[in-house]
User: Fold this.
Amino acid sequence: MLVHRSGSPHRTRSLATAAGALLALLALLLGLSGGSATAATPAKDAPEPSHPGQDWAGSQIAAHEGTGTDRPATGLLSGVEGVDVSGHQGNVNWQTLWNSGVKFAYVKATESTSYVNEYFAQQYNGSYNIGMIRGAYHFATPNTSSGAAQANYFVDHGGGWSKDGKTLPGALDMEYNPYGATCYGMSATGLVNWMKDWFATYKSRTGRDAVIYTSTSWWKQCTGNYAGFGSVNPLWVPRYGSSVGELPAGWGFHTIWQYTSTGPTVGDHNSFNGAYDRLQALANG
Assistant:
């Protein structure tokens, strides 16, 4: 006995073919607009960093933007003096820095999900023990793994936070790629989404909004001068010249200015934009 079904086999195949074509077109349009769900991640992860000990906050800024010859006028550095360090400095003489007036420090903890600064304990604990307010930072490589993976790795390897009055929120170092394409082979949307992932994960782990380290030139080139982080994430900006200069979009002021890479004892020196009690407030959250 024949059973009659609605529609013919030919019509069913035609509908399936049309639906498939429509989905393919939609996927193509999303890919062209940067609106796909995978925009934050490159098509294929890059290899893990091969020389992470040579990557620090400003290493690529100096290489691409120069170290500058002019120093800021004394009045522009009326805030709190600080430094940042990483593994390439080895054991740091914190007593000398403290005696010279340095009151805070940022220490590189990690890079990607494969590197931990081998001098981290001496630098992070040493600055704290001498009396400084200290914090940790992560050197981002957005093309090697997700923002969440790198934020978790950072927190698990020294980048945590405690409300002890002497620990600054973690910082995310976003600068020129030491291993290839300036913007890590990613679109502006992809990089912004990667950072959103990193910041959200860091906040979920620590309860704090992280600081962001970046230069205005890199930010314009690689994020399209995205303005969405300025109201939440404090800005740590490098510029080796007589003034802090133009800031990235979204920030009306900077929190920390890395004003030289050739300062005494460790090279990288910073000025906190405010009085010491405001630095303490940043530490306390």
User: Anything to note?
Assistant: The longest strand covers residues 104-111.
